[in-house]
Amino acid sequence: MRVHSSHEVPQMHKPQSLSPPGFSDSQIDQLLLTLRPLTEVQREALLEDLAGILREAPHLGDGQLYRTLRDLQRRHFDPPAVDGVGAPLKWQR
Predict the structure, then answer these.
(1) pLDDT tens digits for 4-58?
(2) What is the distance between the alpha carbons of residues 90 and 8, in angstroms, rounded to a whole number?
(3) Rg from Cα positions in the chain
(4) Who's near 75: CB < 8 A, 6+ residues apart?
(5) What are the two backbone dihedrals, phi and then psi, of residue 56, each rounded to the nearest 5 degrees?
(6) Residue 16 carries which DSSP code?
(7) 10 Å Cβ neighbour count for 68?
């Protein structure tokens, strides 16, 4: 019998895939890329809209999912204002 010390962490089995049912790894990658530039509030709103879409059409193909994510990102992303060289306007003097 082995006793765990207070410094030992029991080994946990890592799941083979973190993809939710019905999503491929490449679809999860696309979702994560879509969410990357968004704020937390924007992400939550996009994911709520996506959940509604998935209730209507639970198995989107790669192309359908890409177009859906593109449209949702356009709807929820509010890009920062930039000057002519790409610097955020709030940093200019």
Answers:
(1) 555 554 454 434 444 455 789 999 999 999 999 999 999 999 999 999 999 998 8
(2) 48
(3) 20
(4) 46, 49
(5) -80, -40
(6) S
(7) 17
Which residues share a beta bridge with 88?
A: 82
Alpha helix segments (H runs only) across the chain: 25-35, 40-56, 62-76
pLDDT of residue 39: 93
Say how far apart CA 77 and CA 34 lie, in whole Å. 10
Summarize pLDDT for 51-80 with one digit per residue, the tens: 999 999 888 899 999 999 999 999 999 887
Single-letter residue type at 35:
L
- Amino acid letter for position 39: T
